[in-house]
Amino acid sequence: MALSARNKINVSFSSVGMTDVVFNLLIFFMLTSTLVHPTALKLNLPKGSVQVSAKPQTTVSITKDLKLYVENKQISFDDLEDELKQKLGSNPDIYISLHTDESVPIGVVTRVLNIAQKNNYKLILATSPK
User: Fold this and answer.
1) How many domains does the chain have?
2) Which CATH number is 85's domain given?
3) Could you report how far apart the first and last alpha carbons of the chain are, in Å?
4) How many other CB atoms are there within 10 angstroms of residue 48's CB atom?
5) Contact (CB, 8 A) for 46 and 127
6) Which domain holds residue 102?
7) Residue at 77 is within a domain
């Protein structure tokens, strides 16, 4: 009577499933990394050594040719107050980050500061590290 073992272990390994997973992850990270851009405006921020830990709700940017942006939307100085009220409401604990080029006159920055003070918004002046 000859008995033979019926349970044989197959030692081959198929890596096709793992390749699909890695390929899908690669595509996912490539797509998400191209969608993330914090700000599209190139500004030469003034130098500063103090960092604030508060998180701003929105950003206001002034370029060197005195164009005003709320986040990435260009607006006029006359429409700034209405745009901020529409975007932020009247909550007094809201922070706004102000990004200005080094060459922007202080009078233009003061106009934005006055609008923020009038509506009880807290303003953070964005700087680059020294």
Assistant:
1) 1
2) 3.30.420.270
3) 89
4) 13
5) yes
6) 47-129
7) yes
